[in-house]
Write a structure and sequence with these properties.
The structure is a single chain. This protein is an all-beta fold. It has one helix at 5-9, and strands at residues 33-37, 41-44, 51-56, 58-65, 70-73, 80-83, 86-95, 113-119, 127-129, 172-177, 185-190, 198-203, 215-216, 221-225, 228-236, 242-250, 258-262, 270-278, 284-292, 295-303, 311-317, 327-330, 336-342, 348-354, 365-368, 377-383, 389-395, 404-410. The strands form six sheets. A six-stranded mixed sheet has the order 2-3-25-24-23-22, with no helix packed on it. It has a five-stranded antiparallel sheet with strand order 1-4-28-27-26, with no helix packed on it. Strands 5, 6, 7, 8 and 9 form a five-stranded antiparallel sheet that branches. β20 (295-303) and β21 (311-317) form a beta hairpin. The protein is globular.
Amino acid sequence: MTPLSWGIMAAIRFRSESKIMHRYFRRLPLLLCTWVLGVGSQSGFADDQPPQTASAIEARHVRVYSESNRFGGWPANHGIWSWGNEILVGFSAGYSKNNGPGFHAIDHDQPEEHLLARSLDGGVTWTLENPSEQGALIPVGNGLHGITPPGLKEKPWQDCPGGIDFTHPDFVLTLRMLDHHAGPSRFSYSNDRGKTWQGPFRLTVSDSDGRQIAIAARTSYLINGPHDCLIFLTAAKSDGREGRPFCARTTDGAKTWKFVAWIGESPQGYAIMPSSVRLGKTELLATIRCRHESRSWIDSYRSLDDGSSWKLDTTPVGDAGEGNPPSMIRLTDGRISLAYGFRKEPFEIRAVLSDDQGRTWGKALTLKANGGGRDIGYPVSIQRPDGNIVTIYYFHDAPQGDRYIEATIWNPVTRQK
């Protein structure tokens, strides 16, 4: 596998959020490239934690999808994959509408498309692809922020026959849900870099007591071998609401998925959208989006037995504003990068780095500054062969501005303490 197979193996984290923020997005790549200097900002960790300063870095910003009166969003709910300098990312595309403060600015009564964008030059230029034209990755369910585009109907879900070769050099896996609380969920895969798709296949997992888990799936997985894959998911809690993270595993090429372990105790609020990396033969690190009452943060959990048990490790991000999922990747030099959206003033896309396997984390770095409001983030990331990171997210520049998909290309050269 290429050095960027972490982008495939840890492939991204797809999750949705509370109904207050529920529904939005759509098309066209605007190839705008500008070099900018990120603006430093001051923010505070939640509760009694010390204040955090976001440091300025140099970054190149490229529009992936930007259309007038359209809403592009939530890459973390879809996934990202890479092969050298070829990058594929998914996102939602709907129509813009002002729904008032605290709500996504998307028209719930207009079609929502699930699109792909592909770059062949490391994220500098992009072209759009619509898999629904081949009858694949059809957007359906209560998890949509809009409606299924007219004339589209999802194929009946099947039981996967198994035998999938996860190590195929052009393999892509995406896991998706119908509802962000209780699912159900399904998955599709491709052996030609997302040009054609097999599926949808129903995703079923039973817990250690034999009860079927209500799964709200986003794309986050680690490949262990030809027929062996570990996936990271969110389950409904006992009250039927999101969420509690767990991991499941197949050793028969996705014919069956077996529960491995819960990642942490059942939370008072929610703990959702795990993003994971492999640190060693049996050592894993998972970061989790957490919220309780008005506080939102990102915790990390460590497993030393290949996912069979997990222990709370650190809090890489003590304050994420109103909350955002982590996008964590392991770099070729062994460091870890974790990107996230900071959903309160000054509304930024940020990242933190660790050079000790996630035991401590550096100061927050600002990847994109001056957002128009809270409707930002849901990043996904990969590392290019030249060492630069490509982080893709949704953003807007003014409170009522159209939401667009952007890629930030940045060099994680500075080791921060």
